[in-house]
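To fix ideas, we quote verbatim one protein's residues and C-alpha cells.
>
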Amino acid sequence: MDGKSCYRDVSLALDQERTSVRTIMIFPGKLGNARLLAAQLGSRVGGHWGRTDDIAVMARGAGMSAILRFSSAGLSLATQVVLARLMGADQYGLYAVIFSSVSVLALPLALGLDISIIRFVPGHIFRNEGGFIRGLIRRAFQVEAILGLSAAIVWAFGSYRIVGQHLGATILAGSGLIVMELGLVAILTAILRALHKIGRAQFPTDILDPLLLIAAILAFRITTGSVGATQAVLAKAFTLVAVIALLGFWARRSVRPLIGNDRPLYTTMRWIGVGIPLILIGGSVVLLGRMDVLMVSALVSPTEAGIYMVALKIGTLMEMVMAAVNTIAAPMIAGLHARNDQRGLERLLRTTAKTVFVIVLAVGAFVILAGSRLLGFFGPEFQQGRHALSILVIGWAAASIVAPVDLLGGMTGHQRSTSMVMIAALILNAALNLILIPRWGIEGAAWASVITLIAWRGFLAVYLGRRLGINPSILPITVRGRGGLSE
C-alpha cells in the first residue's frame, strides 16, 4: 500500500476512530512531555464543554499549539526587550516601522494560494488526488517567486529613491530580502498546517526564529559594538533563511508520500478565485494590526511608533491564545461545514469562544496589573505606553466573546462577504486613526484599534450567525437564519 492510499484509509476511518486517528495525524511520532501535557490539558477542556470527538481533538491540538504559542510569545517579548534595550526608542521605532511595512507588503504575493493550500489540500488528500496537491503547491511557489522578487526589487529601489539618503542601501536591501522570505514562510507553513503538522508548522517561526534573532543581534553587538535598525533588519533576514530551510525540509518529507509520482494538475483560476478573498480577510487582519503603528509613525514620530509597538507586543500574550486555537479550528470548521454538521459547527465555535475568553480574561488581568513593570523591561521611556496597553487589553478581551469569525467566513464559503467587511474595517480604522492620533497620540491609536476590532467582529458574528443559522459566541442567544448557505 502506498503513502497516498494509507493516508486516505486513515481519513476514511475517522468516522469510527476519530479521536485516536486524528490525534496521531496531529501529533505524529512519540509524544514527548510537552505533547503529553497538551493532550491531557485538551482532554480536560474538551470533556468539560463538549464530548464530541471533533471538540476533543481541537482542544488537544490547541493545547499543543498553545504551548508553542506561549513559548513563542515569551521568546518574542525577550527578543523585543533585547532590541529595545540595545537600540533605544528611536532605532527600535525605525525597525518596527520597516518590519511592519514589509510584513504588509508580503501578504498578497502568493495571490492567496497559501490560504488555498489549507482550504483544498485536505479534500484532495481524501479523494486521493496527488496530482492536484503537487500542482497547487508548485503553482504557489511559482507565483511567489515571480511576485516576491518583483515586490522586493520595487520596495528596495523605490524606498531608496524616496528615503535612501536617510536609511541607506543596506537596510533597504535587507528588508527587500525579508519580503521574499516572508512569502515563502507563508506557503511552507500552509502546507504543514493543511497536513495537520501543527507543531512543525509553528516551531520554526514561533521558537527557532526568535532564538536565532536574539543570537544574531548579540553577535552584531559583540562584533560591531552597537546595534541599530540596519543590524536588526539584517539579523532578521539571516534568521529567516534558517526558518525556511527547516520548514522546507519538513514540508517536503510530509508531502512526498501523498503525491508519489503523480503529474501536476492545475485548477489555477479556481484556487486563486477562492484564495484572493481569503487573503483579503487574513491580510486585512494583519494590516489592522500594523496600520496604527505605521500611522503613529507618520502622524507623530517613529519613536512614538516604537513605544506603541512594544505595547502591542506585550498584548500578543492575548493574541497568542486566539491564534493557538484558530490554528486547529480552521480546518475543522471547513470539515464540519462540508459535512453540513450545523450542530457540531456551533458546538465547536462556542467551545472555542469559551476557551479563548476565559484564558484571555485571566491573561488580560495580569497584563493590566503588571503593565508598567512589563513595559519597564524594555526601558524607562517605554512606560509611556501603559495607558495604550490597558486600552488594547480591554478591547481584545471584549472581542474574544465571539469565535474566530474571520476564519468562519473564509472556511464556510462566505469569504467574499467577509473580505468586504474587512476592507470596510480597514477604512474605518484609517479614519479613526486620522481623527484620534493627532489629538491623543498612541492612546488614540489604541482606541481606534479597539473600536474597529469590536465593530468588525461583532458585525461578522451577527451576519454569519444568521447566514449559517448558528450562534458563534459565548452569549446565550438563539439565532434564526437560513443555515448552511454559501455564497
About this structure: Residues 151 and 247 are 23 Å apart (CA to CA). The chain has one domain: 49-468. Confidence is low (pLDDT under 50) at residues 1-52. The two ends are 39 Å apart (CA to CA).
